[in-house]
Write a structure and sequence with these properties.
It is a single chain. This protein has 185 residues and is an alpha+beta fold. The protein has two domains: 80 residues, no CATH class; 100 residues, no CATH class. Helices cover 19% and strands 14% of the residues. The protein is built from four helices and six strands. The strands form three sheets. Strands 1-4 form a two-stranded antiparallel sheet. Strands 2-3 form a two-stranded antiparallel ribbon.
């Protein structure tokens, strides 16, 4: 873990394409805090899962009893959202276009049925929700950072910049677009 000294910053999205949930901009002060230097890895999460027999939300079969509007094809199956690959010249029309439900997707099977963690021990764990992250933190004797703490740390001292590297968009720097097939490797 690393120590992040406290300070003040303007929290929220900056730039021309800010999602509504990142507004309004507002000033925030955070006290100093510790945060992990990197994301939790598959290897770390596996140690937790083995030690506690924890089953993530994505590994639990869905049921219409607990999810009333569940589509019939997902009844009794495990499902999580995966970043969708776009066809050439296909443009997303909204935030829901970026994701697709995939049967069998969970932290052990990142792309769904048939995928596994081979060669991904040091990759960040995926398909974990808030409840799963809280359980991991309790086991590890840690806590999740607040939204303000995370944003403050992620900015790395930059003030009023639209991106973590500065104010200008750099094609190829947006990992979400690359993963979705919108920007070539």
């Amino acid at each position: 873990m690393i120590w992040i000294p406290g300070g003040s910053f303007t929290m929220g999205g900056i730039g021309d394409n800010v999602p509504p949930d990142e507004l309004p901009l507002h000033d925030v002060t955070v006290s100093g805090f510790y945060i992990d230097k990197t994301e939790v890895t598959n290897e770390q999460f596996e140690q937790f899962a083995k030690a506690t027999n924890y089953v993530t939300i994505a590994e639990r079969p869905l049921s219409k009893k607990t999810t009333p509007d569940l589509l019939p094809e997902f009844e009794g199956k495990t499902v999580s959202l995966c970043l969708r690959k776009f066809k050439p010249n296909e443009e997303p029309s909204g935030p829901y276009d970026w994701w697709e439900p995939r049967i069998g997707a969970n932290w052990r099977h990142p792309e769904g049925e048939g995928s596994d963690l081979t060669g991904r021990d040091k990759h960040p764990v995926v398909h974990v929700c808030y409840e799963d992250a809280q359980a991991f933190c309790r086991w590890a004797g840690k806590r999740l950072p607040t939204e303000a703490e995370w944003e403050y740390a992620a900015r790395g001292g930059l003030i009023a910049q639209a991106y973590m590297w500065g104010s200008e968009f750099r094609p190829g720097a947006n990992g979400w677009q690359r993963l979705a097939g919108k920007i070539p490797e």
